[in-house]
Amino acid sequence: MRRFNSALVILLALVFAARAQWIEKESRTDPGLLAEIEHRHLVFDNSDTGDVATIELALFSTKSYMLRVLDQPAEAHVNLATAAARNGCLAAVNGGYFDEKFAPLGLRIIGGRTTSALLRDRLLSGVLASNGAVHVLRVGEFSAKQKLQSAIQCGPFLVDPGRRVRGLDATHEARRTFAAVDRSGRAALGYCSEISLAQLSAILAGGLGDFKIQRALNLDGGSSSAFWCGSIEGAFSIPEQKPVRDFVGIIPDLRPVLFRSKPRSN
Asked: What is the pLDDT of residue 259?
């Protein structure tokens, strides 16, 4: 009977989460340190449940910026704000999962070099990748032949394609971080206050202002969650609550500049 009651509670929570409507109640945008990048602060509430969720978003154009994975082995660990500043990042969040020995779980590509292998695991269903454009890929879409500068495997998917993902946990609430892309060449790294995966999926699928998300991937959450974004108003920071293995940062894409600057041969 206890097992039946537990299953019923979970089922009712899933149904209730599916029906819940999240409404944007507050939005503020701070210009980033460079053009085509910005920090957005958004607050959503749900009149059905009384729940409130706060989202911090670093939104950027993939035509001008790319992602960099910042490795943080145990002996060299620093916090997110320090790592972001040292690596010239304009914004950053914590990265993917790691085990009790501080080893990364799943694919890592750093500076074009694979440092951790792809895993076939139900939770690690996606890959956040950067090679000029920014991609959120299903594991089945990833190919080792792709020339990627940065990649990190995580999950589960939260939005795909443009719709919330069914069957996500609706009972456990925790701090969350995520990566998202739209159809128009924009991408974002984000943080959300304590919320379930199903609730976050519903909010993101509804769009964050004019940022209409096509795909979104959950990163490591809970006490690992961290967010940092520089702006002309000053840096905004939410620190991690424990050491984490890696971070994902936004950096300027200088390759077009370097290409244009290449001397012509006579």
From this structure: 40
